[in-house]
Amino acid sequence: MLQDIQAAIPLGFFLAFLIGPVFFVLLETAAIKGVKAAISFDLGVILADIVFIAIAYLTSFQLLENLSNQPGLYVFGGMILVVYGLITYLKKPSREALDPNRLKVKKNNYLSLFVKGFLLNFINIGVLVFWLGLIIIVGPTLDNDPNRLFLFFGVTIGVYFATDLLKIILAKQLKRKLTPRRIFKIKKLLGFILILCGIIMTVKGFLPKDKLDIQKGIEKINTERIK
Questions:
Q1: Which of 25, 108, 167, 189 is surrounded by the most beta carbons within 10 Å?
Q2: d(Cα 22, Cα 126) in Å, to the nearest integer?
């Protein structure tokens, strides 16, 4: 059990620093809207990961094969990110947006931030493929024991969330230096990043099927390790 925990800790830390749309939106939310708002958003992200892990565990090999045959899912998710990024990038600030008081998040906004975090992570089919591949790799090393798998992924998610909390606290310190003009520039940068991530995901959907075959990729990695 101790070995499982030791293996899960660096993985959770690594996941917290994967560069993607969620990473940047989390930092932007913490810096502009505060710690509680960012935690609400992050809890939605975590819930999406838990749902993905559950789906991956229950239907791993069959679902992996189906995803390989449905590259259109990448295109769909990518297009959603592109549209969301365009809206964020092109949206012009209103007079209310220039009001410093807008940086305070009302309680009734936390639920919407939670849902936003969940959906932003859930539409990224690449996250599901990642968890599928991870279960296929890690499962045999844990003897496919449900208790060991639960412990491993529980620790992974726990470390992931704890690291996110540190990122949120650090990003919150930037709020003192933020002006309405800088906030506007941050949002435009965030929109550009989302567009870029969406384009990358969409391109994956047009790649040849063998490029999306995660199982072959895993077998190739294992072969290289043996060599």
A1: 25
A2: 13
Domain that holds residue 30: 2-220
Q: What is the pLDDT along the chain (227 residues), one digit of tens a residue?
A: 788 888 888 888 888 887 678 888 898 888 888 889 999 999 999 999 999 998 888 876 565 555 555 666 667 667 777 777 787 677 766 554 445 555 444 454 899 999 999 998 888 877 877 887 788 777 777 777 888 889 999 999 999 999 999 989 888 877 667 666 666 777 777 778 778 877 877 787 676 555 444 445 445 444 544 44
CB 20 within 8 Å of CB 201 = no
Evaluate whether residue 226 is within a structural domain: no
Q: Is the dihedral of CA 139, 141, 146, 151 positive or negative?
A: negative
Q: Per the structure, how many domains does the chain have? A: 1
